[in-house]
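Example record

One chain of 254 residues, shown exactly as stored in the release files.
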Amino acid sequence: MIHDAGLQRVQVNDEVPLTGEEGRHAVSSLRINVGEEVELVDGHGLRVRGTVIIVSGKDTLRIQVTKIEVEGFAELRTTVVQALPKGEHGELAVDLLTQVGVDVIVPWAAARSLTRWAPDRIEKARNKWQGALTAAAKQSRRARWPVLGELATTTAVADLIAAGGTCIVLHEEAVASVLDVPIADLGGTSNLVLIVGPEGGISDEERDIFRAAGAIEACLGPGVLRSSAAGAVAVAVLSAARNWGGPVMGGSRS
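Predicted structure tokens for this chain:
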């Protein structure tokens, strides 16, 4: 799937150029040729399908639009609060969460996080996460990409919990399974928040704060997953077990 940001005014039968980095990737890396079908998305729910009619040089395609689809939000909007893991595990977590269909990813400066985003390096660190998100969204062919939130404190996470919806804190000592949490019955909401702790675990103080705000603790099983994998596994398990659908289709033109 190829991403292009200037698609909002495109109509069926229009010819759309694809140049620059995306065009170079399509021509030189993917080896796309005339006559092949491609997809363009804007990351906000718009998916444009078309046929390549011209390949020029090493970085330019021209595509004739055959179909336009608009994808709405999923019936259950999922936010994952991801504690900062060490090293490149942060980008891995974002990659996996994007692939399984999460709507919002919030980086969290947990008390026991081994990684710290210094004030003068927050932008650089977020850009790395955004890069991982973008690459994974393209690979998984998502038309609507996740939103990457700002770095959150524990207080900000508690406020997110208190704002409403179902919140599950993933914790190895929890008695209940994530499959036992009655998501559909809690307030009739369509919002789910999952909180994933760091490698050192969520502190007792943080657990108390989150429970007081309305969160429920649950586990994924007897094993302990890496912080970078736990959120994605939880979303995948819940999605499969509860048969959650994908995004609502807002219409199409062809």
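Notes: Residues 2-73 form a domain with the Ribosomal Protein L25; Chain P fold (CATH 2.40.240.20).
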